[in-house]
Amino acid sequence: MGSAKNTSNASRKARIEEMRRAERARERRGRALTITVSAVVVAALGVGGYFLVDKASDDSDSDSKNSAQDWPKYKVSADGEKVWGKLGRTHVTKTVDYPMTPPVGGDHNQVWMNCNGDVYKKEIPEVNAVHSLEHGAVWVTYNDKAKPADLKKLEAKVKATPYSLMSPVKDQKDPVMLTAWAHQRTVTGADDPKVKEFFSTYVQGKQTPEPGAACTNGLGQ
């Protein structure tokens, strides 16, 4: 009987030891699986992080570039007015490389130029003037080929018109140009009928991205 009891105890110990070996084997497999999964996750995060950083870098680079190829092409109406498609409206702190002079819209500074009939005798920052266009202003510009008599009449027109401004732009192609958001034309002078038409159509016109936005309390000279 004692022998049977000893045999039973030995069998139980053997089963317990076998169970322990099986448990240790499962633990080893579990640790190996955990390590493998962790390695895969870390690798995936690393690759994902790379792409995120790389994408962010690309976005940053693209944000710093404002090439002409990013701009929509313009159409020219029968009477010579240039009209652009949808333009960017992001507020930026840097300068913008506008593909036309003067610019007709696009990314711009968060501060607008005062455009409550303001006449500037010196060139003004383009990025601020574009913000004025976004508010529905008409921008009258001229170079050194413009006639003094025309400039005097245009100054009077601007001073009498809220949501308009005037300034010299020495590098523009023609003596006198009129610009609104996504619209631009050259006029022959102050007496050109297109001046009145342009003001009537585009001062706070349908093209205005932010109708009713302020034209005061911005940037002035």
TrEMBL record:
State the residue spans of region: Disordered. 1-28
**Which key words are in the record?**
Membrane, Transmembrane, Transmembrane helix
> Which InterPro entries has this protein been placed in?
DUF3105 (IPR021454)
Quick check: keyword Glycoprotein in the entry? Answer: no
Polar residues: bias regions: 1-11
According to its UniProt record, what is one Pfam family this protein matches?
A: DUF3105
Q: Where are the transmembrane segments?
A: 30-53
- Ranges annotated as biased composition (Basic and acidic residues): 14-26
Can you name this protein? DUF3105 domain-containing protein
Organism of this sequence: Streptomyces venezuelae
